[in-house]
Structures are given as C-alpha cells and as structure tokens.
Write a structure and sequence with these properties.
Two copies of one chain form a homodimer. By secondary structure, chain A is α/β, with parallel strands linked by helices. In chain A, the strands form two sheets. Chain A has a seven-stranded mixed β-sheet with strand order 6-7-5-4-8-9-10, sandwiched between helices. Chains A and B meet through helix 1, helix 5, strand 8, strand 9 and helix 8 of A and helix 1, helix 5, strand 8, strand 9 and helix 8 of B. Chain B binds a DNA duplex (22 and 22 nucleotides) through helix 1, helix 3 and strand 2.
Chain lengths: 208, 208
DNA sequence: GTTTGTGAACCGATTCACAGCA
DNA sequence: TGCTGTGAATCGGTTCACAAAC
C-alpha cells in the first residue's frame, strides 16, 4: 500500500486517530477494537477500519488492534516524530498566537523562524524567536531547515507571501488568509478562514 | 428551494462566493459569468452554477449573473448583514487573536463577550471588552445577544466549555481545541485543529 | 451567438454485511 | 466465538454536455 494511496478524507482523519492512540498509550491500554477507537475518534467503526486498511493490515481478527503498534504505523504515515521546522509569515495577533501555541511542540513542530514586513515588528522577539524581515526568508528556510510555512498575513498580502514562501523552497503551507490563492506548482496548501467558518455556522442560526 | 436543501459542501463554498462578489461590487462590476466567478473563487464553472442553483435561479442565460443581485441572495442564505454577537471562551493567545481579528467586523460578527476561568485574566480588557468569569456566561449570552461561540480553550477544557456554552443557549460553536467533542443536541459545531492541519501537510513532505 | 440550469454519467467516499481468520 | 478486512451496495457530490433562454 503506497503512501499516495491514502485517500484525501482518510488523511484528514489520521491526526484524530493519532491523538486517540496517544491517549490510549498514555493510559496503558494495550489493545482496542474498531468500535472503541471509532467511538473515541467520533467516527463509525466501519469507516475507521476502512481508513486503517489504507495503511496496511495491522489488526487481529477476534482481538482488535495493538494500540502501540497501530500508533507507530499511523505516526509513520504522517511523519510524526520527525522534527519539522515551521516559519510563521506575518507576526500580528494571529501569528503571535501560532508561534506561542503549545500544542505544536508535542507533535514535532518547531517554530524556528518568524518573518514580517513591518519595521516596527522586525527585530522584536516572540516566543523566543527574533522576527526577521521577509527578505531573509530564503536564507532562514535553508539555515533552519524549515519545511512548513504558516501564513498569518492580511488577505491582501497573502498571494505575495505564498509566492515568496514557495520561491524559498517550502512546499507545504497553511494559510489563515481569507482569500482564494493561486497555488504554485508542487506546493500543498491548506486554508483556514475563521470568518468563513462563522458564516457557515450562521447558516444554521434562526433567520429571525 | 428551502434553506436546508443547501448541501454541506456547497455551504462551505458560499462564503468564498460572498467574498468574490464583495470584490466585484467594490470594483463596480455589474455582471459576471459563471466562468469569471468560478475563476475568482478557485472552483470549476459547473460547480459554481450547481452551487448557485441550490439558492435559486438568479442568472440570465446568454448574459451571466447580476453581481449585486447575486450577492444579495448569497448573503441572504448565509445571514450575512445581520449582526451576530460572538463570545470567545478562553482568553489565551489564540482567544486574544480571535477577539482582535479585524476580519470579523466587516462580516457582521461582533465579539461582545470574553470569558475565562483564570482569575489572573478575568477583569482584564481585550479588544475593548472586559473578560468575565465563565460563570457569567449564561447572563452575558442573554444580555449581549450572543449567537455564536468560539472555543479557544486548552484541549482538556473543551468538552466542559462546549457543554457550558450549549447550556447557556448558544447553538453554533467554532472550536480550536484539538479534541473530538461530543456535541449536545441542537448544536452546530465546526472544528479547526492547527496541529492536525500541519500533520496533514506533513504527509506530503519527503520522508527523508 | 452566449451562458444558464440541470438531467445524466461519473467518481470518490461511506456504509453494509459477511467471509475469513484468530 | 469475536472482530477485522473488504467486496458490494449506496450515497453525496462533481463534472459532462446540452436543451432552454436570452
């Protein structure tokens, strides 16, 4: 089962499974069935079994899954455990929040560079990292072994930021900008738009 | 075409269309074809036409869509334009970033309440709003007409926060907590997990 | 001629349901 | 017996392709 054979939707659930398995390992649970794992992950058992089948055949019929073994395989598929250098582009409120977010370190993500274009911000230190000018991006990516970028820039600056990040050699980008972005070849982009999420939720509110 | 007939996936694209239409109105464009709109939104023309067809039939064959009219219908479906009170639960770095996020106001979202459990934080003012104790939540929801909640609490506190928010009468919730949450009846929940997004992106990185 | 709106075909993902293995 | 892994059925959503409308 090659890596590229993992369906997109399955891929989005693997981090959830990884978290559930982390919990079970921490609690010393040795074995778990698809029913138990699915309940903890908030999905259907059949879906979880199908998802895991894309990684290989690691369960035992009549028994369930060995928690530690399965965890190793899920982590392996996601590349968890390997250190991943992250650059945060745009050091406003959101950029500072991402840079300070404690949830990244236990997953192997290390914010090793911050860049901005505002001279007021460049030179300041956030979460122990000095903010550099955007012009330094390419150098920092190489020197600090950056493999992921988080864009926390205003919408109007997002396309330029994405292009700059791509030119610097980073191939995986998470954007918080409320914009449809044209994605350079070979770059994987995921987007989060907080206002859009709230608008989607608004749909369900009473129109009154 | 009733409101509940809008498919989930279409719903997630409506905010994108709304933004594109905002731009066109601002630039004084009167009419646009599905090809033009789709290009700006980053989707296929057929998909855009299908999506819009769920809202009604607002295009003119041989001409395209009247930008202002279509915008009004898309906004209407999402309830944009109506003021929406928002409470931010958990005033850490991320909560402060959300409370200060300028992108919410133009979409009609107004952060009118902040709550936390930490006595160090309660009483401070963020983005012009005083942080209240979580115990005040129900009162604030009523007094300030809150219809949406954003959960920016640590993972371990998320389920309790969600339950408290639901008990206070808020029915639409956006969570940033890295947890699978059990959703109370009648509540719409959307989740954003930054570390999970980075893990998904990690999948595409070279394993070396 | 141009472009919408939509049946119909297609596609990927979910769920069912059970054969196969522990 | 109990539970996985997976064919087969199903479902929702996307894309095709064209008749209808302008």
């Amino acid at each position: 089962m090659t890596a590229s054979a993992v369906p997109r939707q399955t891929l989005t659930r693997l981090p959830v499974y990884a978290r559930v398995l982390d919990d079970l390992v921490r609690r010393g649970v040795g074995t778990a069935s698809s029913v138990e794992l699915a309940a903890a992950a908030g999905v259907e058992p059949a879906q979880l079994r199908r998802d895991l089948s894309h990684l290989g055949s690691y369960g035992k019929r009549g028994v369930g899954y060995d928690v530690a073994e399965l965890r190793a395989h899920v982590r392996g598929a996601l590349g968890v455990g390997r250190r991943r250098g992250v650059v945060v582009v745009g050091v406003g409120n959101l950029g500072r929040a991402v840079a300070s977010y404690a949830g990244l370190v236990p997953r192997g993500f290390e914010v090793v560079a911050l860049v901005d274009v505002d001279p007021e911000v460049v030179g300041t230190t956030v979460a122990g990292v000095e903010v550099a000018d955007l012009a330094e991006l390419s150098r920092l990516v190489v020197e600090r072994d950056v493999s992921l970028a988080v864009l926390t820039v205003p919408g109007g600056a997002a396309q330029d930021a994405l292009d700059a990040v791509a030119a610097s050699g980073v191939r995986s980008v998470l954007s918080f900008a409320p914009r449809a972005l044209s994605v350079p070849d070979g770059v994987a982009l995921r987007s989060v738009d907080v206002a859009a999420e709230l608008q989607i939720l608004s749909y369900y509110l009473p129109p009154a």
